Amino acid sequence: MSKLLSANFIRLKKDKFFWSGLVFMLAAGIFFPVMRYMDMRQTQTINRIDNGFFGCALFIGIVMAVFCSLFIGTEYSEGTIRNKIIIGQKRGTVYLSNFITCSLVSVVMCMAFFIPYLCIGIPLLGFFEMDIKIVLLFAVTVLMTAIVFSSIFTLISMLNNNKAVTAVICILTAFLFLIIGAQLHKMLSEPETNMALVMTDNGQEYQELPNPKFLDGGGRKTVQFFYDFLPGGQVVQCTSLETENLSLLPVYSLVIVVLTTSAGMFFFKKKELK
Amino acid sequence: MEYVLKTNALCKNYKNFKALNGLTMNVPKGAIYGFVGKNGAGKTTLIRLICGLQKPESGNYVLYGLKNSEKGILKARRRMGAVVETPSIYLELTAVDNLKEQYRILGIPSYDSIPDLLKLVGLENTGKKKAKNFSLGMKQRLGIAVALAGDPDFLVLDEPVNGLDPQGIIEMRELILKLNREYQITVLISSHILDELSRLATHYGFIDNGRMVKEISAEELEESCRKCVRIEVTNVKALVRVLDEMKTDYNIISDNVADIFAKINISKLTLALSKENCEVISMQERDESLESYYVGLVGGKDNE
């Protein structure tokens, strides 16, 4: 395993997609607090560092979709995955080494956003308003979500021979998760009642009427579960800083990582390489 | 004889297509084994199986005395290197970086032997040039260098001269011969460029429709392909009597055709045959090549 990881890290040093992603995350980490500061100056409203600090969750999925599909896809398109198998490396080890590499990259990418954000954001916007424990829990959740994206995209990339198809599937999947997350958020945000203008004996009156789109009971629990469980839902919760089960989110992420990695290793062991 | 690789009734299907249909072959240690067959005969499939890229449906193979079902097969594979179809190299990396990558995968801590390896394959002057800018021949040689990184005893090359220019073919041939003669590496080469293979191979395996049609050593092949005169006569018994009297080596092909393996005096032969009331219908010098031998084995066009 250490041999394969070492080889992956050497390749990483020369990988232009890795460096492009890193520069993008660094730039975002600098740009976001500066923009918030400028906005604060213009509108004269207090803009804390809390808002937007976990904004990297919003695009880490897309960045990792591009990186994983191209980094692992290259092994298929250039046939170099064969070099590992031919010399007797176990398939499970090959899979795990690629997953670990992608996961570490996702953590590095998040750090590339967090560190400049903190360095620039604290002097400009002040320190966190939230309890530091909550901040750390949100940070862990974002990092775990990034690892979940890595595990899902590693699964797709390791089981697909075609680099271009892999890239398209990964990017579409990343967007799909975000859309699902936003949709689940919308469903859960529906108010219980709506104010409606109704005709009464006294003329027109505003009355509170039950909102048919409001979810309650089992339906709400199910939607809330998927909102917490799926990485798209976690992304929305981290960026909006509105969450009901924050401590559960990293646990759900861990479950997804274990499930996708086990399934990926199982199918990769059976996969016929060319 | 010691064998590096032995396969026993290997079968492999791709959906309804039988790529390998009970293939049995034996690669002797120290040989350059030419694996001959037309496109789709099953050459690459066999190579994929022995490289561990795919699994056989039935049958087995033994690599360095270890069956493919045994756990130790992974260790046995460390003694082999392979270039399957296209060279497996990172196009965005230089030749040195590609080798460093493979050294890491193999767990070789020192890069000291990389310059020697590059010199061996003739890529010592590529500098910072990325592999994507290499010629096809250079890419093939880099692929072989990557395969040689683990200092293998057994090298598997799938169509190594495909698409190379004449100079590239010569360089590849010299490299393979050097690896076999100077480094005692057993080489398995699949190819359908028979003329090229005939300059290299010490053993041949002819495959067709996923089956081994014939395994033969280069000496045996030379024996069966030796120069001869094919003669067609009206009375083959008379011809046999005459040739026996002349103490000439021959082989009867049919009722009126025979091959004569000697430089004969045609006037004397025709005179002698005339005395036996036998007419010569035709006579032609034959120099059977590997190609004609192969066509004879697998049936050429009729078999397509």
TrEMBL record, chain A:
A Pfam family reported for this protein in Swiss-Prot or TrEMBL: ABC2_membrane_4
Domain of life: Bacteria
Entry GO terms, CC: plasma membrane
TM regions (residue ranges): 17-37, 52-74, 95-128, 134-157, 164-185, 249-268
Key words of the record: Membrane, Transmembrane, Transmembrane helix
GO molecular function, one term: ABC-type transporter activity
Keyword field contains Membrane: yes
Protein name: Putative type IV conjugative transfer system protein TraL
Automatic annotation (TrEMBL), chain B:
Keywords: ATP-binding, Nucleotide-binding, Transport
Cited Gene3D superfamilies: P-loop containing nucleotide triphosphate hydrolases (3.40.50.300)
Listed Pfam families: ABC_tran
Entry-linked InterPro entries: AAA+_ATPase (IPR003593), ABC_transporter-like_ATP-bd (IPR003439), ABC_transporter-like_CS (IPR017871), P-loop_NTPase (IPR027417)
Domain spans labelled ABC transporter: 5-234
Family annotation (PROSITE patterns): ABC_TRANSPORTER_1, ABC_TRANSPORTER_2
GO function terms (MF aspect): ATP binding; ATP hydrolysis activity
Family: Belongs to the ABC transporter superfamily.
Name of the protein in its database record: ABC transporter, ATP-binding protein
Species for this entry: [Ruminococcus] torques ATCC 27756
